[in-house]
Amino acid sequence: MKFNLRFLFIALFICTISIAQNKGTISGVLTDKDMNNASLPFANVLVKGTNISANTDVDGKYSLSVNPGNYTLIFSFLGYESVEAPVAVKANETVVVNQGLSSGSYTLKDVVVQASTGGKQKESALLLEQKNAVDIKQAIGAQELSKKGVSDVANAVVKTTGITKQEGTNNIFVRGLGDRYNSTTMNGLPIPSNDPEKKNINLDIFSTDIIEYVSIDKVYNGKFFGDFAGGNVDIVSKDYKGNGFLKIDFESKINTNAISENNFTLQKGPNAFGFSKAEIPNNPLTQYNYGSLQFDKKTPIGGSFGISGGDSYNVGEEGKINIFGTASFTNEYASRTEGIARGSVNAAGVAGKDLDYNYLSYNTNTTAMFNAGYKINSNNKINFNTLFINTSTQRKEESRGYIVDLANEGNGYIRRNEYEKSALWVNQLLGEHKLSDRSTFNWGGSFNTVKQDIPDRTYNTMNVLDQGYVINSQSAPNNHRYFQTLKENELAANLSVNYKFNKNEEGDYKGKFTLGYNGRFKNRDFEATQFNFKTTTFPVSHTGDIVDPNNLDLFYNQQNLDNNFFTISTFRGGPEVPNALDPQTYNGDLTINGGFLNTEYKFNNKFTAVLGLRAEVITQTVDWSTQLDPAGGSDKLDKTAFLPSLVLKYELNEKQNLRFGFSKTYTLPQFKERSPFIYEEFLQAKIGNPFLYASDDYNFDLKWEIFPNSDEVLSVTGFGKYILNPINEVVINSSTNDISYVNSGDYGYVAGAEVEYKKTLFNFDSENAKKLTGGINVSYLYSKQELNNEKVQEETQGTRPTTFTNTTGKFTGASPLLLNADLSFFNEWNDKKSNLTTTIAYNYFSDRVNAIGTLEKGDLVDKAVGSLDFIAKSKLNKNYSLGFVAKNLLNPTIDRVQENKSGDVSVLSYKKGLNLSLQFSYEF
Fold first, then answer.
1. N or C: which end of the chain has fewer CB within 10 A?
2. Paired strand residues for 503
3. Which residue in 620, 549, 537, 633 sits closest to 585, CA to CA?
4. Where are the coiled-coil regions (predicted)?
5. Residue pLDDT, tens place only, 89-142
6. Taking the model in full, what pTM does it have?
7. What are phi and psi of 224, to 5 degrees?
């Protein structure tokens, strides 16, 4: 019996080997007939009646291994007519079947949904590109974003491995490294920041309606500017192809905290669409022509409306023009409840302020984008993109309680109203040209402008007495109105030439040179004026000076100014000073010229290497005249950087890759960080440091990945970064505990590991596409940096002294543990005209340092938070779709503590509430 079993096993083994050895191969290239037979990547090839299938690669190529016999191939691509082709396969032979696809006779209604979910918006297409690319990158497309209920780019990138967003800000942290270490591009070209404090633009403002996919590069490549350590986020705009379509979207949404507010009021003035702007009034020191301090009651129900469409037109015999446009408006209300704020806390745990904290806000986003692609012929293509985004935020922040030396009886009251408006305009022209079979030329240029206004921010400080509220003017800035304007223009250019060399017997080239140039020319003008309103008595208790906090216009008016009940001045002085109205200013100029040479070589079928060398010449100049330096000054930073990079890829088999990356980069300080300007946040002030200089960074990555199926991936990555002279935000030694920016030590390093897993858990009915899918990504991070008081003292010439509590510490924003997980059920019926997708998504980050401790105080730490979202989207038929999204279902407490030796002290705490939305769309 044992012999028979052994014999049977050997026979089966030999038979299996024989069959495998006698298999044949079907290969070929799919092309796009509508685009002059250009290669068609990410299309589907299926052997009819079997489970054997493949996707075409980025060059439109495919390959299938089958047993000898006669078959029928089905070629398909979303938005195109499927084609069937017979093929006969013999043992040990390769049959070449090339095929062209076109949209053909598809009707307008047939192609709408398919066109909007094809190409690189698909998860499977992006995974295939990730698998085949030599570079180490991740991407998330429109299809996956829709499934996870993501409405903007900021929330898109935090769904990828190793990336988090700092609560209460727009900061994105990549592998524990914050805003200064990251970069943002659109279609490979840089875009400016809309916030004077930030290097990168607020990714919240980019609606997913305008994107094809978002690419996140965590490993440096010489084609990027060298100001790179954490990662680069590239927003790839929609590049529409196919027949015409038109789509309309509606959404209503509420925040449970906001809708529960009995009296949701915001300051009068700004309109509901976010385009209003208040100017500094005429004669502001002697005439009271300021806007009202009264409030309007709001109904806190938000919503959105959007329209998008596209079409394609033939031009001559070979040409084709594709156009796509979208416009949308969205608004939303928010409220933070159960809040406390304690400001600065000393080492003994005693707070300078002990207040409750109330926050109300109203946000708008108006987006319009137009894209036109002109395919001149199969060798030449030009794209034009223009994007306009206008955002506004109206906030009301209030706190009541103890304020040292101002409200020692716990009867203080602070209110800040702020209206912020930003307008971004991006214009890009890009070209792709095939010069020969060996060489291509790519170019791109952009002109971008951004204008940010904070028109008439108001700040009022009062004391609550038995008789009512009185204005507190112990210090002139305790009551003020503030006007700020930032204007930034930026020109950028990318040029690159690819040349292939060393052609092998199969007709493929083993090597490729890429020679390129990048230029960036940025100019920023910033000015701010604060008008301080000081009453002539402090504080007063007789009833004649009692004010109504909800109608301060009764006190701040022309009559009381004429009666000298209060005076108006700037930091330069009052009406008697000739230059009192001269604003605080800083102007920044940045010029970067960079050239690079990347050499890619495929040593064999498995091993490929890319060696890059980049050189950059950087000049950053800042001029200023500010409250800290009224006479004005300037500073110039020059840097020449030589930046080598190496990427290695080894294909273990057709489904597994092993990758390695190493590079040197740098981190440049920002204009604001080098200008001695005081920027006041609610209960916090920040000051620039002219002595700040660039850091140098060394980066490495090692990654293993496997792609079991077209929509599945498992990857494990180890990474490390060593940073010389890291830059940090720190509390400097001052009476007001101001924050500044310093090169805080000689070194710092980050090390960690990432795991990502996407899988189809159950395929209940492959014919009707009923399946359960899941995904999880986990990141572990360890960071450490030197904290050196002597270094800071010497390099800032004593102007920004620090007394660090510890000699080493973690990087700010570095969470040791990050987790994203999602579970989705997809069901399709009615001959694939109707479907339902339901998703549960969970995000978690562990404790992370917000600011480094000084003067024996512990670090400020943002405590761990986990959030849970539910998304349900259904296509009812060809035209109608519905969606329901519920975010922040767990509604955790957002808590920031100071980790003193005697124990944690909570310094900021609140709840955000649930965000619920109902969505509807109609496709013509």
1. N
2. 509
3. 633
4. none
5. 988 888 999 988 875 433 322 323 233 334 555 666 777 777 777 777 777 777
6. 0.83
7. -85, 155
